[in-house]
Amino acid sequence: MSDEKAILSLQNGSDVRGVAVEGVEGEPVTLTGEYANRITAGFVKWLAAKNGKAVADLKIAVGHDSRISASDLKKQALKAIMGLGAKAYDCNMATTPAMFMSLVYDQTKFDGSIMITASHLPFNRNGLKFFTIDGGMEKSDLTDALKIAVDTAKVDTDISTVQNCELIDLYAQDLCEKIRKGINSEEFYHPLKGIHIVVDAGNGAGGFFVEKVLGQLGADTAGSQFLEPDGHFPNHIPNPENKQAMEALRSAVITNKADLGLIFDTDVDRMSAVLADGREINRDALIAMMAAILAPDYPESTIITDSVTSDKLTDFLQNELHLKHHRYMRGYKNVINECRRLNDKGEISPLAIETSGHGALKENYYLDDGAYLAVKLLVAAAIAKKEDKSLESLIEKLQPIFEEAEYRMSINCENFREYGQKVLKTFEERAKEKGYTVVTPSYEGVRLSFKGSVNGWALLRQSLHDPKMPLNIEGNGAGDCDKITAVMQELLIGFDQLDKSSLKK
């Protein structure tokens, strides 16, 4: 593979991701130290042009999560920054949202920042996320920076004089101040006194939240687990969507009789929770909870979600909270950009959030920040306790999902995007011919609604990056998932390059 193709192939939407260390059979290293160096150099040159500054006038920070390849990749990123003449700052162990906030804080005010992370992916993966004061890079901007990297040689220099920045301390202090202000308790410095909160950091970068945030605010954190950074992730995948991870947190909450449990992904841009009774607050329930917290301050506003949310969530948002629900394309940058667009045109939208746990608030720089979601949740919990209420009451009218299924069907041809579009077009035409209800507008894929003898919905879409077609199904009664799956099989007959084997029992 040519250098150009190898570097450009590392783009994953608005991030860079690849295999960074050996150890998994059949997965050779693709994100080498050299490529990390050249890609960072491409970002530096791109940023100088964007900001209209000389490279020597730029201040750029680098941070990382707990991955085992982080140290080597960080050295290469710092070499590229300093070798080109810009000022480099080593933020050490950090979080993705903290790296953005380093551009905002008066104490730092960096021109750009780089977070070395691959979120919840396996231990052998890693990647780079890039920030400007406008937020994370857009996909097209990253493509431009990678093209610059292709034409840039590896940069080498001595980095022994790099400046250190203990960013996580500054970030934690900011979170503490936001919680104190939000609760406005008589116990101003210890507003979480008397509240028992368990944290599961999954051995990622989120362990700081226990000592540097909750501990400073007076919370009881006994039973918190997997706080030590370990890039092998020995206990469970650090992913709030992972069933094992959520069960580990739920067990810790119940065993320790905690009031609340919080779980973060590796780089802390996502969060989910568990309530005192063991109820998991993730996916639709997390969206409902955050919307219920925001609703009093943003009446009749619009909540942006990804496309796979339930009809039950729509009913709760619209009929219980009197908000608008706007389903949009998957991908955290997609929902965030749609939230920005609506606010720019005058339609109030306080929240853009995916079922994955990525949540960005307008009031927080449109930043997908798991720790900030935790801040909002903790403030709500403290206020509820003061009023002798519970967090559970905020979403007590959200109807639980009865049964659901997700199938990921592979497209087995080279021009998979074109083939996927053909499948969607024919699928929709067949559905209409059969008299099924096609939900409009749809910003991603084709969504069908079923009412009557079969009750529920189905969404067929193309994956954002992979040659796959995910199919999400939700049934509202016993056997409805199977009945809807049978309909899907009927509507997908004849597409021989679509692997439908997962639909068969």
UniProtKB/TrEMBL annotation:
This is Phosphomannomutase. Keywords: Phosphoprotein. Belongs to the phosphohexose mutase family. The keyword Phosphoprotein applies. Its cofactor is Mg(2+). Gene3D superfamilies: Alpha-D-Glucose-1,6-Bisphosphate, subunit A, domain 3 (3.40.120.10), Alpha-D-phosphohexomutase, C-terminal domain (3.30.310.50). Residues 13-151, 193-277, 283-398 form the Alpha-D-phosphohexomutase alpha/beta/alpha domain.
